[in-house]
Each structure stands twice: as C-alpha cells, then as structure tokens.
Amino acid sequence: MILGLFIWPTILLAGGLWPELQAVRWFNNPVFRLEDDRKVLLFFFDIDQNKDARETLRHVEQINVLMKQKDWVVIGLTSARPSEVESFIREHRVRFTVGAGSKSSRDYKVDRFPKLIVVDRKSGKKETGEAAPGFSEMDLEALTRMNRSAAPQASDLWPELSKMDVAELMDYIEGDAHGMDRAGAVGHLFEQMGNEEFVRYAEDRIKVETDPWARAKLRYYTEVARGVRADDDGPSPSARALTAMNEDPANELWTPVRAYEALPEGERADADKVFSIYQSSFGDSPVDSLIRRAATTDLWRRCASSHQSVVRKRLLQIAAADPDASIRMIACMALGKVCAVGDTEAADFLESLAEHEPETVRTKPMMEYVSHYLRTGQEESETMTPRP
After folding, report:
1. CA-CA distance, 289 to 323, in Å (whole number)?
2. Does residue 34 surpass a pLDDT of 50?
3. DSSP string spanning 346-372?
4. Nearest residue to 234 via CA among 137, 321, 135, 359
5. What is the structure's pLDDT at 67?
6. At CA 57, angle to CA 386 and CA 100, rounded to 5?
7. What is the DSSP letter of 32?
8. Which helix (H) or strand (E) holds 11?
9. How far apart are alpha carbons 268 and 109 in whole angstroms?
10. Residues near 277 by beta carbon (within 8 Å), at least 6 away in sequence
11. Residue 13 near residue 40 (C-beta atoms within 8 A)
12. pLDDT in tens, 47-63
C-alpha cells in the first residue's frame, strides 16, 4: 500500500550524525527515526524517462529483493514530483520508502543517478559504544551478488527454483521470465539432471535461446557436465575487493582508492587525466583493481558528456584489454550509453571480443547484448538471434 505522509518531512539517521533526509512527501510507510543497528541503504534516483531509466529500474528490482532481509532499511529519494513518484511506485511495485520532491542529494553530494549509499551504525561503533556510522557506496553488481547469496528467502520476486522438479525447471527456462532469472534456473536443472541428459537438453535449448545470459549459463554448465571446467563461477577480483572495502571502509588498505575518490570534480571529469590514472593502476592488488574500476566508471559517468569520442576510444580499449572481467563488463555497459545506435564499428568490435571472452557467464553476454543494441536499438533480448 502507498501511504503519503505530510506530518513528518524529515528522517534522522543514526541519531542525527548524518544530514537529515528531506522530502515534500513520503510514500510506503517511512521509518522516520532509526534507533537500532540496521544498515540503511539510501537510493538516490531520477525517474526521468529520458535519462537512466533502464538502470534505475534494475536498481529498483534488486532493492525490492533486499527488502526481504530484516537487517536492512531502504530509503529512496528523488526530486520528482509526488504525482510522478506515486505513478512510478504503482507501475513498478516499489516496496521501499520513497521521498518525493527531495533535495537531500545535495546534502549527500550525489553527483550522478542512480546512486546507492550505505549507512552502517553497527560496523562504525567505537569501543565506548558511541555511534559512529560507517558511510560507503555500493554498486548494482555488489547489491545483486549480496541478494543472490541470501536466496532463496531473499525475495518472493524470484520463484523458489530449488523446489521445482526437472519438468518445472525446463518449463520455466523455456517460458517468458526474464532472461537472468531463467539463467538462474539452469543451475538448478544441472543439479537435478544427470550430466549426459543435461548436455543433450542444453545443446537443443541453445539452438533457440535468444537471451545471452540464459544461453551463457547453458554453455557454462554444459562445460561443467563434460568435465571441461570446474563449477568455478565466482566474483571477479575487483568485485571481491569492492565487497571487502564495503565491509571494512576504514581500513588503511583503501587509502589510495579514497584518494582517487577525493580528487576534484574537474579532474575526475577529465578523460585524459582519468585514463592516465587507469593506466598507472595495472598491478594485481585489490587497490589497483578498484581504482581501475572507479576510473572506468568515471569515464562513463563524468567524462562522456564533454569527451565523448575520447571516452568511446578508451572504453573500447578497456573492454578489450583489462584483466578484470567486471571492469570489462562495466566498459561494455558504458559503451551502450556512450555510443550511438548505428555505431556498427563498435558493435562489430564487441561481437569479435565476445567470441573470445573467457568470462562466459556475465561479461560475454554483456558484450553480445550491447553489440545487438548498438546495431538495432532494440533493448529486449527476445529480439536477439540465437547463437548456437
């Protein structure tokens, strides 16, 4: 149910140690004062359809999943008008608290949308017991991975795949659910089928499967069934480093990353400066991977508007050469925004990279998807051609 409340215009976080959250109108029963140790996820977003609407909806989907975890509170904040927000909530079944007409993004120095900020009182408590909340950012990949690690109880948005039998799983994989959800069903099917039976099914299904993520999982588990690879699907080095930094943000290990984040806005919006920092961080350490990841994101988010041709060139280089699969994937996602539909040169390049991409579960399908989008302007994977 949507509840619009006008009596309390602000929310105080962690005893008032952080800027209060302000909105003209609140929806979905907001918690106005948080006196416990639950972690708070602040979701700053824009619902303008001409901006990052697709990315915002991906965040909403994962945040709805997070709402099932009792140790988290989620508060969304947007400058959009209450009437727009009410329609948005109904259309997309938003379950978390949302503040409409909010200017809190200025107090929290939000420089892009959508953005996730974590406020964690428990991890930041001093020995005296005084509340000193930790304050960190979270990206969509980390949020998605955290949700999946908590499945199946994480959300009723996801079917309880582990309770399905073989016939039900095959029906689900062949149905009209989102491709990433159907990809999740592939692993459960593999667990229940014998290796030879699964290989036969997967080879037939791949011939007609249009979604690149579902197809990737079919290929991945076919290789596992054949003994070509171990079941070793796990996060990339930069993803593991990001998780570690979010869990212990005050650790001195992350000082170089914080130094990069503290650079003046003009430097982080300078494509040549950012790419120079990226190139100087090609070591194997977690810190190097995080700086390259941040620099790649800055090329996309901060630099593209004024250095589009340069950014396009650099992102193509990163997609081709970065040793970290997540960073290659971020570069591909960015190319889908930076390049114009009809950029067949970039589409051809990504397609050629996909043919040899070693990370087959996430990065390879992203390359295939962005290549298709740049050729056709079509965003739905159903419009893609099967790649047997």
Report:
1. 9
2. no
3. HHHHHHHHHHH-S-TTTHHHHHHHHHH
4. 359
5. 83
6. 170
7. -
8. strand 10-11
9. 15
10. 260, 291, 295
11. yes
12. 876 556 778 888 998 89
Query: At what angle are helices 271-279 and 286-298 packed, to 10 degrees?
Result: 160
What is the phi-psi region of residue 340: left when phi exceeds 0, alpha when psi lies from -120 to 50, beta otherwise? beta
Which of 146, 139, 327, 324 minimizes the C-alpha distance to 237? 324
Comparing 77-81, 107-111, 146-150, the range with the smallest average pLDDT is 146-150
Specify the amino acid at residue 201: Y
Is 56 in contact with 136 (CB distance < 8 Å)?
Answer: no
Distances (CA, A) of 335 to 124, 195, 233, 329: 37, 38, 25, 10
For 121-169, the pLDDT digits (tens) are 665 544 434 445 567 889 888 888 787 766 543 333 445 787 889 999 9
Q: Regarding predicted confidence, which is higher, 214 or 158?
A: 214
The residue type at 97: T
**Residue 299 corresponds to which amino acid?**
L
Q: Where in the chain is the domain with CATH 3.40.30.10?
A: 10-150
Buried b (16+ CB within 10 A) or exposed e, 127-162: eeeebebbbbbbbbbbbbbbbeeeeeebbebbbebe
Class of 10-150 in CATH:
alpha beta
The pair of structure tokens assigned to 277 is 């920092």
- pLDDT tens digits along 11-31: 555 444 567 888 898 888 765
Question: ∠ at Cα 289 (360, 295), nearest 5°?
Answer: 100
